[in-house]
Amino acid sequence: MRIPFDPRHSKRRTNPDGTMSLVDHLYELRTRLLLSVLAIVVTTAVGFFWYSHEIFGIESLGELLRGPYCSLPESSRADLSHDGSCRLLATGPFEQFMLRFKVAFTAGVVLACPIWLYQLWAFITPGLYAKERRYAIGFVVSGAALFMAGAVLAYVVVAKALHFLLTIGDNVQITALGGAEYFGFIINLLIIFGVSFEIPLLIVALNFVGILSYAKLKAWRRGLIFALFVFAAIATPGQDPFSMLALAFALTLLFEIAVQIARVNDRRKARRTEQEWGALDDDEASTIAAPSDLNESFDVAATAVPEPAGRFRRSRKSGKSGAANKNDDASTTGSNTPGQDFSDTL
User: Fold this and answer.
1) If exposure means fewest CB atoms within 10 Å of the residue's CB, which of 104, 105, 247, 333 is most exposed?
2) 318-336 average pLDDT score
3) What are phi and psi of 313, to 5 degrees?
4) Given this model, what pLDDT does residue 264 score?
5) What is the reported pTM?
6) In angstroms, how far is CA 280 from the centroid of its own chain?
């Protein structure tokens, strides 16, 4: 699959196989970052307009985020408007503008996630194998879907959480929330739920690369579930039981799904290994021949040779001529027959 605007196909490419130097990689990273930032700027502008206006029949961002607070009973929230409409409190001259920009930027990052996720995938995919590229596409799509699912769950739960937090002492106090404080609480809850929903995807990724097996997950299941509940209790910003339990139970369900995916993947790997190598152990399945004994190549018992008197034995004098002695030496050094005594050549 050819990637559009890929620097490996530009004029700066020097190698025919598409490899690049460190400087070319830095140029490519700069291009990817600029495209991602440009996309976020455009979607942030859309979010800035969407904050107070409807788009394609969808309520404005301000109305959507204000919905959980305005759904509370009127007796549990302060009435700050002259016409009885639900409004949040602003205590600074620039608070409304900064709040609108913060909400617009958050919406811009979320709306531009397909673009900057694609830029990230396009940067790393040339260094991956075809199988790894297929997995990368699946993980990117699954990650975006899980993040959106976590944000939707947080929006549904936040109404219950606010009702618990703002009505627990309404006979003594009445709540007048500031816009920055309230929207900050909503945005933090959406981000925490969205990021937390990526934990099961991380478990599946570690299993696919062979780091975390199903046997380990099965052995650590109770401890990991307990850790998920502790994480949910610490991570939720409101410290209310509704958001904590909703996040903990959702993560537990996704964790069990991830464990079952790891189970199926490990069985598939074991079945493939058995088909390729059969029921052989590691030694039998190895293609490397076993080491041979030295006695098989050099049979010292084949020829009886008298032991030398010392460490080095001098050559015995013979009545042969010099040419005959040279022939004998050449024949002796040229053949390495089994059982040969090499001490004569020293």
Assistant:
1) 333
2) 47
3) -105, 125
4) 92
5) 0.64
6) 34
Q: What is the pLDDT of residue 171?
A: 65
Q: What Cα–Cα distance (Å) separates residue 113 from each residue in 149, 186, 239?
A: 14, 20, 29
Q: Give backbone dihedrals phi and psi of 175, rounded to 5 degrees, phi first.
A: -95, 130
- b vs e for 27-65, b when ≥16 Cβ sit within 10 Å of the residue's Cβ? ebeebbeebbeebbeebbeebbebbeeeeeeeeebbebb
User: How far are the Cα atoms of 58, 62, 81 from residue 96, in angstroms, in the given order?
Assistant: 22, 11, 16
Taking residues 125-140, report their average pLDDT. 72
Answer for the pair 89, 179: CB distance below 8 angstroms, yes or no: yes
Provide the percentage of residues in the chain whose pLDDT is more than 70.
Answer: 68
Residue 137 CB-half CA count within 13 A: 6
DSSP lists the bridge partners of residue 178 as 89
Nearest to 142, CA basis, from 6, 267, 261, 264 = 261
3-state SS class at 89:
strand
The amino acid at residue 306 is P
Q: Give residue 261's pLDDT.
A: 92
* DSSP string over 150-193: HHHHHHHHHHHHHHHHHHTTTTT--B--BHHHHHHHHHHHHHHH
Query: How many angstroms from the chain centroid is the CA of residue 250?
Result: 20
pLDDT value for 19: 67
